[in-house]
Amino acid sequence: MTIILRRVAELRDVVRGWKAAGEVVGVVPTMGALHDGHLSLARRAKAECDRVITTIFVNPKQFNNPEDLKKYPRTEEADVALLNTVGVDVAFIPAPEEVYPDGHATTVSVLGVSEPLEGRMRPGHFDGVATVVTKLFGMTEANRGYFGQKDWQQLQVVLRLVRDLNLPVTVVGCETIREADGLAMSSRNVRLTPQGRGKASILYAAITAAAADIRAGQSDRMAIREAAEAIRGAGFDRVEYIELRDAETLMPSDDPHRPRRMLAAAWLDGVRLIDNIPV
Ligand code: PAF
Fold first, then answer.
1. How far is the CA of 196 from the centre of ligand 1 (A)?
2. For the chain, which has fewer Cβ within 10 Å, the N-terminal or C-terminal residue?
3. Residue 200 has pLDDT above 90, yes or no
4. Which ligand 1 atom lies nearest to the CA of residue 29?
5. Alpha helices, DSSP H, located in the chain
6. What is the residue range of 204's domain?
7. Distance of CA 239 to the CA centre of its chain
8. CATH code of the domain in which 156 resides
9. Average pLDDT, stretch 251-270?
């Protein structure tokens, strides 16, 4: 039975009991509105840890757009019921004041990897993510933290911050879970209209085709241009970026001997969709 805890002090008591018994603790940080992508992280954590905590916290500090924060789906009861089905031990659901009490004055900034792409489009976003993830690691004292590769840049930011701050947690990046047509699962997908949902998978199809063309020898630039045209042609409102980057540093890369990643963001139905794949 998944128990709900809302206070850091209560969580600490529970976790310290587990640790005193020598148990390995995993955390799956989320903002709720859970779907199969989140549940796959929780299942992986269950397979690798003795105890699993899922945090549900819509972190105001990582929203650069107040409208987006307001519209973010909040489905606590359904979320906890889903966590129960995968045997998560604790749903940690703190109030904003519990996470950011009066006088909170510390921000964690990860330079470099957080600056391009999402960092450029959403100023302040990764400071918010890095700050809350550092706090959640501190609050849960987890041994292992589970993150989806769908937010590839976020995963690299978290890996960097854990290395840079010597945090005693192992970060595990898990495969993106996709709908049958290839659309990456995201809490934002529910905001698509039925027509938008019908077109949304073209984002994945277009970057997959571009990656295949690059591997077959087409120039990066031409393949990316064709992918952007295909996405716009399918009726997306706007392509924000499609970029081929070094998979770890997120810097521009034309070195095919280093792992590279194609990352994309595009707007459809007023919803911002992101995706990424290895090249
Ligand atoms: O990926 C998310 O849902 C959030 O960015 C995270 C990691 C839970 C931090 O708020």
1. 25
2. N
3. yes
4. 8
5. 8-20, 36-48, 66-71, 76-85, 96-99, 118-121, 125-140, 152-164, 194-200, 202-215, 220-233
6. 187-278
7. 20
8. 3.40.50.620
9. 94
